[in-house]
Amino acid sequence: xxxxxxxxxxxxxxxxxxxxxxxxxxxxxxxxxxxxxxxxxxxxxxxxxxxxxxxxxxxxxxxxxxxxxxxxxxxxxxxxxxxxxxxxxxxxxxxxxxxxxxxxxxxxxxxxxxxxxxxxxxxxxxxxxxxxxxxxxxxxxxxxxxxxxxxxxxxxxxxxxxxxxxxxxxxxxxxxxxxxxxxxxxxxxxxxxxxxxxxxxxxxxxxxxxxxxxxxxxxxxxxxxxxxxxxx
Length: 232
Known about the structure:
Blueprint: H1 2-15, E1 30-40, E2 46-56, E3 63-74, E4 82-93, E5 101-117, E6 121-134, E7 140-152, E8 163-174, E9 178-180, E10 183-184, E11 188-200, E12 205-215, E13 220-231
Parallel strand pairs: 1-13
Antiparallel strand pairs: 1-2, 2-3, 3-4, 4-5, 5-6, 6-7, 7-8, 8-11, 9-10, 11-12, 12-13
């Protein structure tokens, strides 16, 4: 009986390979298309921010992730910091021709600390703590730290007409190793290293085009990124 089940499973695997998880091709460059926005209410220290991201394993069409995120912000008086409480919905696809997807809901808390060095170097520290509900997995958390650096080339500010270099590095740390059903992950989740060229179309609208290298314990893959940054 066991031999019969084994051979039936083997035949199904050979005849229907898309049911198996395809191995990610690290040499294939993907592409992420992103829109970031933020606004502050008039005469208030409260505001809103969010982003929409369409991520592909390839240039377009092979869904890696669709991410919708938004949150409420608060900037205390006499403190150069912004706090955010938000929610994100993530739909993750499987590499290759399989149409399998997985849903995730996140609640996150974030702190942004911007400052400048030598007038030209615009630094921002971002600390983010996520609570994650991933489909068919146990509840878990994650800590993220991102260091952003924008360096204007033709002036010292990022106002209209500025051409600038954008850099960042972000590290992700899992709060738990156990994800349920006997599955585990490493404490180190991933690292993202990014470099881009940006242009300030107006004082409130900037565009960036760059390259990001994402490294996990199993995959090291490059992604082209095109992003729009909008202050409403």
